[in-house]
Amino acid sequence: MAGPLYGRAFQTAYVTRDLDGAIARYAAAFGVRNFMVFDTANGPYALRVGLAWAGDRMVEILDPQGEPSPLYAGTLPDQPDGLRFHHIGHLIEDADQWRQVEQAIALTATPVASTISVPGQFEIIYTDSRSVDGHYHEYVYAMPDGMRFFSEVPRN
What is the pLDDT of residue 8? Predict the structure, then answer.
């Protein structure tokens, strides 16, 4: 049986240098056209974000604005509207399960690349497992308000 670090994989995320161009490119290739687009910041780093449901999988496209965070800088594609795979998102909806994920990260000494807190909605941990599987993992504890936010993401 898989441990808590292999919870429900719900999201595939990419980075780009041009969110609008990348969404158009993704739409042409895969038919996923309807995205929620918004701006956000984590400390000094700003992002434009596009989210869309494609069946039961969420697609996230991240476009760093200005100087990119080290979390994204090494993954950005050369082509402006290009997409480069960044992480798999794992959804956690239960506080006990979230504590198990936190403990498993600590016990396995998995490097933590970033943590983000959106009070009342989300707690997020990015782990850097590039030396093992070539990419990051994002663990998202979505509280009820966070799940409501996800329910507003367009379905394709």
Answer: 86
Q: Return d(Cα 32, Cα 49) in angstroms, integer.
A: 15
Q: Tell me the pLDDT tens digit for each residue of 41-63.
A: 877 899 999 999 999 999 999 99
**Cα first-last separation, the chain:** 32
pLDDT at 1 over 80: no
Distance CA 86, CA 7 (A): 18
pLDDT score at 2 = 55
The reported pTM is 0.94
d(CA 63, CA 108) in angstroms, rounded, equals: 30
Q: What is the DSSP letter of 110?
A: P
Which strands form 122-128's sheet, in the order they lie side by side? Answer: 36-42, 45-54, 57-65, 8-15, 84-92, 136-142, 122-128, 112-118
Rg (CA), the chain: 15
- Report whether 10 contacts 91 (CB < 8 A): yes
